C-alpha cells in the first residue's frame, strides 16, 4: 500500500497524536555509509555542518573522520536538504508519494507542501533540547536508538500562544521547558527500523542511546491546514505587538478556523504594507 512505511501509516491520528510504527527503508542504498561518504561532500558546504561538543562548526570534513569523532565526543553532523543530491532523489520522491497519499486519505489537502529532508548523525548519549518543528514531521531511525518525549500539539500548557507565534515568526530562538508539564509528554523508545509521527506544533526532546551513534532522517512538510495555521500565527504575532499598546490581545489561533483562515489570507497584504512603510522611513 505504501512504498516506504508499514500499513500502520494509514491508522495514525494525523497531526493530532504522535505514533510510532515501522518503515521499510533500513537497507536503502542512499543511507549506507559508503553512499553518504560520496554524497555529503558533493552537497553545498553550508548544507552539511559538523559540530563538536565544544561548539566548533566545520564544513567539508570527511565523513569517515567525522564518524570516528562522533563516536567518542558530543558531536553531530546535520545535513539540510540532502534530497538535492541525486542519490536521495528517488527516496525523497517515494516519501513524498506516501505522504501525499496519506494527506488525501485523511482529507488534509492534495499534496505535501514545502517538503524537505533533514539528516542527522549524532553521538551516543547526545541530547536534543526541547523544541518544536514548524512542520509536520515523520522521523525515521536507521542506526542506534533514542528516547523521545512528545507533547500534545499546540498545547498552551506547554508552549504559550505568544511563544508559538514568536517562534513561528522567527523572533525567538530559545524555548524553555517547565519541568512541571513533563508529565504531559508521551515517551517513546525509538529504534532502527521505526518511524515516529511528530504532529505539527508538538514540543519534543530526545536523548540518543548509549550503544551506538544515531542516524536519523526527518521528512518535514506542510499540509493546507498547517500552512494556514502557520500564517495565522504569523499574523497574530504582528497583531499582538501592536494591540499590546491598547491593552488587548488577538484571538488565539486554533479557537476559530474561520478567523484563522481570514488571518492567513490577510498576512501577505500586511507584510507588503509593512515593507512599503519601512521604505518610506529611510
Describe this entry's structure for a reader.
This protein is an alpha+beta fold. The chain has two domains: 7-225, Jelly Rolls; 228-281, no CATH class. It has helices spanning 33-39, 63-72, 86-105, 161-168, 224-243, 257-281, and strands spanning 19-22, 48-51, 57-58, 76-80, 113-122, 127-132, 136-143, 145-150, 186-191, 194-198, 203-208, 214-222. Strands 1-10-7-12-5-4-2-3 form an eight-stranded antiparallel β-sheet. The chain is globular, with a radius of gyration of 20 Å. The protein starts with 18 loop residues before the first strand and ends with a helix. The relative contact order is 0.16.
Terminal CA distance reads 58 Å
User: Residue ranges: pLDDT <50 for 5 or more in a row?
Assistant: 272-278
What is the CA-atom radius of gyration, in angstroms?
20 Å
The CATH homologous superfamily of the largest domain is named Cupin
Number of strands: 12
How many structural domains?
Answer: 2
3D shape: globular
What portion of residues is helical?
Answer: 25-40%
Return the average pLDDT rounded to an integer: 87
Strand order of the largest sheet: 1-10-7-12-5-4-2-3
- The SSE string, one letter per element, is EHEEHEHEEEEHEEEEHH
